Amino acid sequence: MLLGRLGLEKARIPHADRHGLVWLDRGRLEVEDGCLRFITAGGGDLAPGDYQIPHQSLSIVLLGPGSSVTHDALRLLARHGCALAAIGEGAVRFYTAPPLMPDTSALAREQVRLWADRKSRMEVARAMYAMRFGEIVRTRDIEVLRGQEGARIKRSYQLAAERYGVAWRGRNYDRENPNAGDLPNQAINHAASAMRAAASVAVASVGAIAQLGFIHEDSGQSFVLDVADLYRHDVTLEIAFGAARQAQRTGQPVERLTRQRAARVFRQRQVIPSMIDRIKTLIGPQEQKETGKDG
């Protein structure tokens, strides 16, 4: 946490230069002497104490279970363009976020520009597949890309099942009853839901447009689904099959185990900061793409 007062409007950091996010739970977010503070008695990841939050350098504050926020805190966050999201334990659920209102529309305008042109939209889709599979895909046909993804993810399921010693009979997903499948399929459903929540946090934190996806098209969360899929074949399956194995061994509810494992993995592997970096690389203005994490 930074020391000293950070409330000077002239010292405001441009949103494009921010990268940080903080996770807070089981406490109270308030303002004291113009500074944002979080007071907690402990019980979560933070030790008991009174913490000053460097809101000017943050993209988003993630407020977890057992927390409250004052009107003054909301006003201060809004004034300095720092978003606040109510999340589940470890960001495996994304409940709400006030409008981010960043100080520039540059990333959103670049997203629209890339999305509106069929050729550049396809180039972003190809870049997403390259991030996922570590190689440049040659085709410029989105349906061919989707077919290649289907074959690769099918193989990824089998490899993950073998790695964790879980019996795998194939993907079986009933949208009307997602809990109807066997343990591995249920775990995949819950892990995918958690990953979408993490992607929602990342998309909200940079002020991107959730509806404008480059691979997904119909959903109102199309870009969120695009970002979540960047982690589908490795992180999501690691969470799912690890939780399925634990559920088989302990008899504990697979949904709870999956959420707990997801929260751990998100933090250990810095999944949301990684998502933010990838969004900026894929659709950020050129200066952000060139500077990487510094953008």
From TrEMBL:
Q: What class of enzyme is it?
A: hydrolase
Which EC number(s) are documented for this chain? Answer: 3.1.-.-
Can you provide one Gene Ontology molecular function annotated for this UniProt record? endonuclease activity
Xref: InterPro entries: Cas1, CRISPR-assoc_Cas1, CRISPR-assoc_Cas1_C, CRISPR-assoc_Cas1_ECOLI, CRISPR-assoc_Cas1_N
Annotated Gene3D superfamilies: CRISPR-associated endonuclease Cas1, C-terminal domain, CRISPR-associated endonuclease Cas1, N-terminal domain
Required co-factors:
Mg(2+); Mn(2+)
Residues spanning the membrane: none
**Binding-site residues, Mn(2+):** 149, 216, 229
Mind listing the UniProt keywords for this protein, alphabetically? Antiviral defense, DNA-binding, Endonuclease, Hydrolase, Magnesium, Manganese, Metal-binding, Nuclease
Fetch the HAMAP family from UniProt: Cas1
The family assignment reads:
Belongs to the CRISPR-associated endonuclease Cas1 family.
User: What PANTHER family does the annotation carry?
Assistant: CRISPR-ASSOCIATED ENDONUCLEASE CAS1, CRISPR-ASSOCIATED ENDONUCLEASE CAS1 1
**Subunit relationships:** Homodimer, forms a heterotetramer with a Cas2 homodimer.
Function as written in the Swiss-Prot or TrEMBL entry: CRISPR (clustered regularly interspaced short palindromic repeat), is an adaptive immune system that provides protection against mobile genetic elements (viruses, transposable elements and conjugative plasmids). CRISPR clusters contain spacers, sequences complementary to antecedent mobile elements, and target invading nucleic acids. CRISPR clusters are transcribed and processed into CRISPR RNA (crRNA). Acts as a dsDNA endonuclease. Involved in the integration of spacer DNA into the CRISPR cassette.
Name of this protein: CRISPR-associated endonuclease Cas1
Which source organism does the UniProt entry give?
Chelativorans intermedius
Q: Which gene produces this protein?
A: cas1e
